[in-house]
Amino acid sequence: MTELSAHLPQFQHGQMTENFPDNHLSNTNDNSERRRHDNSERRRNDNPGSETNGQPQNNIQQVVDQDEEEDEELTLKYGAKHVIMLFVPVTLCMVVVVATIKSVSFYTRKDGQLIYTPFTEETDTIGQRALNSILNAAIMISVIIVMTILLVVLYKYRCYKVIHGWLIISSLLLLFFFSFIYLGEVFKTYNVAMDYITVALIIWNFGVVGMICIHWKGPLRLQQAYLIMISALMALVFIKYLPEWTAWLILAVISVYDLVAVLCPKGPLRMLVETAQERNETLFPALIYSSTMVWLVNMAEEDPEGQRKASKNSTYDKQAPANQSQNEDAEADDGGFSQEWQQQRDNRIGPIESTPESRAAVQALPSNSQTSEDPEERGVKLGLGDFIFYSVLVGKASATASGDWNTTLACFVAILIHWGFNLEQKDERSPGTVVAKVYDAVISVDGY
Amino acid sequence: MTLAVFFGCTFIAFGPAFSLFLFTIARDPLRIIILIAGSVWGWGPWATSGHRAFFWLVSLLLSSLIWFIAVKASDPHDEPLQKGLLIFGVMFSVLLQEAFRFLYYKLLRKAIEGLVALSEDGCSPISIQQMAYVAGVGFGLMSGAFSMINLLADALGPGTVGIHGDSQLYFLTSAFMTMVLIFLHTFWGILFFHGCENRRWWEIVAVVVMHLAVSGSTFCNPLYVGSLVPSYVLMAIAAVWAYMLSGGSVQNLRRFLLCAQSEASPQPAS
To answer: Where do transmembrane segments lie in this chain (chain B) (predicted)?
Structure first.
């Protein structure tokens, strides 16, 4: 087990970078997708699966043209319900992360840093430490930006297979390798004797069922549980390998970058969403946490996601040809991010002609049953990147605050507010979310 | 033993509050939102997600900053000075909490206007009285959580309470104090909002004075009878007052109790 731990630092590199752009993209996509879905749900009662990946983007066009006021009213009415629906998984993820941080000492032990944060924080002066953390954050953010742009480029030029492969390797690594390490550390903490055969059986089953649930079909609750688990695993990795000041700086800059990438007309995330819209593709269901059942016909559409992961793998290969393990790590990192919009592309990669047709057919089907459907039953989708991001925030706060639970609680509440803000926004993020994050950081420093 | 203390104190402190939450708040997402967070950015009808606990947190943050600065700037070995600073910090925190309660009232007023404007039948899905109650519960839960969580975490670990000569009842009395504080915040919320709504400033002043009294009484600790008994008495007063303000009366109460009895058994209750 200990040898595996030593290898982790190398593995993390790709993952770290991959994750952040994923987070933002997924979040952006989710927000806009959610809006569109909300709109389309209201407008077209014969689309029950608005929350599913089956929603064609053509609905969105019609939806956008419609009455704005109706939109706002319904947003307000059901916004509260949606906010609550998302509180639960976010809370669960944070609870898992905080519980692990408080009990398993492995994730608070310093075992080196990732290659993306090469400057150490064990310096003699505070000024030097500040400088190092700024440099670390700058490197990390630029890697994230590069990866985001790369993914957008891949998407634009329809290199779906690359992304598919990438995605599959990412989630493979996450579901098998990271959970193996996590299980091992938990056993060590509680001094549980365990043999390799049992562990192999457990991890194999866990991983395979996870792959099936996330990338193909599975019970909704199980899929949600798996998404929460992999988000928590990813967040724990970040908490372990990011030094403190760097972590806080990165969190702060990511918020700003998020805003910029989504709001700027030339922002990569915005371009991604617009491209997806033009191509009438939907977001990836597997890397988006969906609070309601994905509509039946669309389940079959999820196969292309696998292809996307494959393509993602090779994309990363180009970037870091040096280390095979690095590549795998990158994929695992990408799991949080690229899967989302990659799945979006996947819907294209499959039989392109049949997809819109099947979707149209599907939408035409339940027209009678849809009229009576309560729009409140509409679900909400949320990008996994946000889960990870905020779990890192809360986890870091609880890890560094010398055992003080008040800091953790304060961070948690501030994050819930941020969620509330996000979900209340119509199209764009507001500076209020930045305020919430600033508040988080202040609380943590205060408790620190 | 430690686990029993942990669960016992948790249930004492948070049991009533959580049952209030479950029975009256959990079903309505709007109420949950009002409870949990506080939208700092509160303009426009979109600001319906005004969240009480966040406001309380912000007030706590500011007051703790002030206290921290004061402590750092003073001599740590001067006991009376430190105690004086602590008293000052507590009073300042109380005043700040009430100020934020007022700010929150302003925010919720705006939110109600927004909700009314956007509703189909011209009335808000939630009234200001309900908001006052939910807001009070939110404030109370947050303050209770901040008081008790570290205590509960320590209650789990190995240790003996009061082994150095302090009171052995520390955990228990803290739990009871937390419970009474949560209730008090709930009632103060109702009283405060009612005072703001109907321009009865003396109600607001009464809330502030009560809060100062309760917080000040905790300086009698470890003479727990000096802090717990007045707090419970004040809670009873505030409960009756809030009940009256919410439209309750002795007749309502009797009718409620008798109805419950007559539903349970066909015989007339006597």
So the answer is: 29-46, 53-73, 85-104, 131-149, 169-194, 201-219, 225-245
In B182-217, which positions are buried (b, 16+ CB within 10 angstroms) versus exposed (e)?
bbbbbbbbbbbbbbbeeeeeebbebbbebbeebbeb
- Amino acid code (one letter) for A119: F
- The percent of residues in chain B predicted with pLDDT above 70, rounded, is 89
A167 Cα distance to chain centroid: 12
- HSE, side-chain direction, 13 A CA sphere, residue A246: 26
Residues A344 and A23: beta-carbon distance below 8 Å: no
Burial class (CB in 10 A: 0-12, 13-18, 19+), A339: buried
Determine the 3-state secondary structure of B48 from DSSP: coil
Instruction: Output the CA–CA distances (angstroms, integers) from residue A411 to A85, A175, A255, A360, A416, in the order listed.
Output: 20, 28, 15, 44, 9
**Bridge partners (DSSP) listed for residue A289:** A382
Among candidates A84, A404, A410 on the partner chain, residue whose Cβ is nearest the Cβ of B150? A404
Q: Which residue of A has its CA nearest to B67?
A: A446
B233 touching chain A per CB within 8 A: no
Q: What pLDDT digit, counting tens, does each position of A398-420 carry?
A: 887 666 787 788 778 777 777 66
Question: Rounded to whole angstroms, how far apart are CA atoms A21 and A13?
Answer: 14
Say yes or no to pLDDT of B124 above 80: no
Q: At B39, is the pLDDT very low, low, confident or very high (cuts 50, 70, 90)?
A: very low
Which distant-in-sequence residues (6+ apart) come within 8 Å of A3 by Cβ? Answer: none
* A146-155, A296-305, B84-93, B107-116: range with lowest mean pLDDT: A296-305
Res A27: pLDDT: 41
Residue type, A364: A
Instruction: Please give the pLDDT value at position A247.
Output: 86
In a domain, B10, yes or no: yes
Dist CA B123 CA B113 (whole Å) = 9
ipTM (interface pTM)? 0.77
Residue A147 neighbours by CB under 8 Å, 6+ apart: A17, A18, A20, A21, A319
Domain count, chain B: 1
Give catalytic status of residue A386 as yes or no: yes
pLDDT at position A414, please?
A: 77
A258 is known as an active-site residue: yes
Between CA B54 and CA B119 the distance in angstroms is 26
* Tokens 């209201």 found at: A42
* Residue span of the structural domain in which B201 resides: 2-159+168-249
What amino acid occupies position A371? Answer: T
Is residue B254 domain-resident? no
Q: Is B209 within 8 Å of chain A by CB?
A: no
Residue A109 contacts residue A189 (beta carbons within 8 Å): no
Of the candidates A22, A258, A317, A346, the residue annotated as catalytic is: A258
Cross-chain CB nearest to A84 (options B32, B64, B142)? B32
Single pTM value for the model: 0.68
Is residue B196, in this structure, part of any structural domain at all?
Answer: yes
Residue A396 CA to residue A390 CA, distance in Å, equals 10
Contact predicate B36/A88, CB 8 Å = no
Q: Rounded to the nearest 5°, which phi and psi values hold at B267?
A: -70, 145
Q: Which of A16, A139, A137, A98 is nearest to A404 (CA)?
A: A98
Give Cβ neighbours of residue B73 (< 8 Å, ≥ 6 apart). none
The beta-carbon neighbor of A446 closest among B33, B61, B114 is: B61
Nearest-Cα distance to chain A for B38, in Å, is: 6
Q: Residue B104, Cβ neighbours under 10 Å: how many?
A: 30
Please state, in angstroms and rounded to a whole number, the distance separating the CA atoms of residues A79 and A300: 30
Chain A residues closer than 8 Å to B40 by CB: 417, 432, 435-436, 439
CA distances from A393 to A13, A215, A396, B39, B101 (A): 19, 28, 5, 19, 28
Position B264 in a domain? no
